[in-house]
Amino acid sequence: MNNKEIQMQRMWQYFVDATVEIIDQKGIENVTIREIANKAGYNSATIYNYFQEVSHLIFFAALNYLNKFIEELPTYMDKGDHALDRYLLSWECFCKHSFEEPEVYYAIFLADLGDRPEELLTYYYSVYQSDVFQDFTEDIKILITEYNLSTRSRKELDKSVQEGYLTKEAVAIINERTVLIWQGMLITIINNRRHLNAEEATNKTMQHITEIVNNYSLANACFGHDK
Questions:
Q1: Which residues form the HTH tetR-type domain (predicted)?
Q2: What angle do CA 210, 216, 222 make, to 5 degrees?
Q3: 218 Cβ contact list (under 8 Å, min separation 6)
Q4: Cβ distance 153 to 182 under 8 Å?
Q5: Is the model's pLDDT at 133 over the cut of 60?
């Protein structure tokens, strides 16, 4: 990395850190280019030298809040006896953290970020946390670094086919419905359509996800997300 690239990376991190401070102090809904510029001590035009739009800055800053999910995910996954168990447990962990901070997870996974949001995620981890995954299994790395929600959990579902718990046809159905259920609950919480706390929303969502899995499971025993 040459001096120019190092300088650009430092400025990039500086603006992202300023955005994180604003989120901590005022909430993600109050992040604006003007607020970021004031916090960082630069004018707004300078910020656009490094970011195409404010949603990208919010996205990068919001990713900092995934750390709690990243840290707890291996503990959840270790409880699973097989791939379908781990699929449910990974969703339980994701629901718990996303419903505790719904605006942050909306900014990462549902907000309009343009044509190639996955490239933003790849760049973030190359700059910020290149060594954070050294002790993680490949399954967990995918759940953390993959932007597309359907792709994130597809690996465990595919393993469930290999282990004889699901058919290939069932995998696509479960994947699609699970993502739609989570999206619906997150938006419901953000829009105050139902007054559920994070635990209640997680339990309700996991109830629906578990029912879907049980409906398509080839095993005789039902799966639950509580271990």
A1: 9-69
A2: 50
A3: 164, 165, 166, 167
A4: no
A5: no
Contacts for 13-21: CB closer than 8 Å, 24+ residues apart: 13/127, 13/128, 14/40, 15/40, 15/42, 15/47, 15/50, 15/51, 15/57, 16/57, 16/60, 16/61, 16/64, 19/57, 19/58, 19/60, 19/61, 20/61, 20/64
How crowded is residue 35: how many other Cβ atoms within 10 Å of its Cβ?
17
- CA–CA separation, 69 vs 72, rounded Å? 5
SS3 134: coil
Residue whose pair of structure tokens reads 């159905």 in the numeric block: 173
CA distance 113 to 53: 9
Candidate CATH numbers 3.30.450.40, 3.20.20.70, 1.20.1340.10, 1.10.10.60; the one for domain 3-51: 1.10.10.60
Quick check: 166 and 84 in contact, CB under 8 A?
A: yes
* pLDDT tens track for 151-202: 877 878 999 999 999 999 999 999 999 999 999 999 999 998 788 999 999 9
